[in-house]
Amino acid sequence: MNRRRRTRVPFETRIRFFIAGQEVLSSQTKDLSLNGVYLFSAARPALGTLGEVEISLALGPDPLRLALPGEVIRQDEKGMALQFREVTPEVFTHLKKVVDYNSGNPEAIEAELIRFSFDPARKLRED
Fold it and tell me: With respect to CATH, is domain 9-117 assigned 2.40.10.220?
């Protein structure tokens, strides 16, 4: 059973993960969703580790970089998944454009946003 609530799209770019202001890894992404990112890495911060995720959206001397808090939520033999903890409206706009474009079906992404935003059966997570 797939418990994912957001579509993941293939998206290869450079990503950096910082813990307490120190870069712990710089790697390549595999895929991206509005909730998080999977990246290839031999580094294995503990599950639940919080840090700052920096995603480069363009190559070249001055790429657009998105910075947002993230948490290590899953690991496997090839890398790890980071869940975004807080997404500002500006960062969300950029993430949504990337996911829309790479999904090939922006209408389905929009439907996910509506469905999961207004699902009365959804349990709210308390932090």
Answer: yes
2 pLDDT more than 50: no
- At 87-110, the pLDDT tens digits run 999 999 999 999 999 998 888 888
Residue 11: Cβ within 10 Å count: 19
CA-based nearest residue to 103, from 19, 36, 4, 6: 6
Q: Which helix (H) or strand (E) holds 91?
A: helix 89-103
In one letter, which amino acid is 48? G
Q: How far apart are CA 93 and CA 80, in angstroms?
A: 24
Q: Which helix (H) or strand (E) holds 51?
A: strand 50-56
Structure tokens at 29: 């992404």
* Residue ranges covered by each domain of the chain: 9-117
d(CA 115, CA 104): 19
Contacts of 58 (CB under 8 A, 6+ apart): 64
